[in-house]
Amino acid sequence: MGTEGSTVLSPLWRGLPPIAPSAVSNSASCALPPRFEAVRTARTFTRTTLQGWGLGGLFDDVALVVSELVTNSLRYALPPEPISGGAYEPPVRLHLMRWTSRLVCAVRDPSEQSPTAGEADASAECGRGLFLVESFSDTWGWHPLAGALHGKVVWALFRLPREQHA
Fold first, then answer.
1. Is residue 119 assigned to a domain?
2. What CATH number is attached to the domain comprising 57?
3. In which order are the strands placed within the sheet that holds 139-144?
4. Is 62 in a helix, a strand, or coil?
């Protein structure tokens, strides 16, 4: 992946379409508890962050994608039993990053398994999450974390409307 200058990419940005990490104008992240109430926390965090960045109009699409990514992490990426005294290490984290013309939401979790799109029939209550992520974002992907970090990051990119470029 190419970047501007000699900027070294953090594990969070690996795998994204070329965007210089140094050009991030805003970023925010939050740790999420290993409970399904975390989806509500992620949506609230997303709403507050987007409103603070003047991007409140994007909330519906971004929140749907964030909800799916967080739900998938909680459902498929956490070990069945808590590790070391009830805490999961590393926690599920939601990251929101804004570049001049793009917004990225990324969810880090402790699993190293790739996300897989399910084949859900019309009556199924689950199995459409990554289809929704693909439908509502401009692109999405994932990558394993490297070095001392274990797990993966699943991200979705949204191109900002021209009037949102700042």
1. yes
2. 3.30.565.10
3. 26-32, 92-98, 102-109, 152-159, 139-144
4. helix
Tokens of 39: 């989806």
Q: Report pTM.
A: 0.78
Question: For residue 99, what are the contacts with CB-CB under 8 A and spacing of at least 6?
Answer: 19, 23, 24, 25
Q: How many domains does the chain have?
A: 1
Residue 159 has pLDDT above 80, yes or no: yes
CA distance linking residue 70 with residue 92, whole number of Å: 8
pLDDT digits (tens, 9 = 90+) for 54-101: 999 999 999 999 999 999 999 888 776 655 555 545 479 999 999 888
pLDDT tens readout for residues 90-113: 479 999 999 888 999 999 998 888
Per-residue burial over 46-66, b if 16 or more Cβ lie within 10 Å, else e, is beebbeebebeebbebbbbbb
Largest Cα–Cα distance of the chain, in whole Å?
Answer: 50
Which token pair is 34? 């290993």
Let me know if residue 48 belongs to a domain: yes
∠ CA 90-60-35 to the nearest 5 degrees?
A: 30
**Is 43 a domain residue?**
yes
Residue 3 lies in a domain: no
Calpha distance 44→50 (Å, rounded): 10
Torsion from C-alpha of 60, 62, 64, 65, nearest 10 degrees: 160
**Domain housing 120:** 25-164
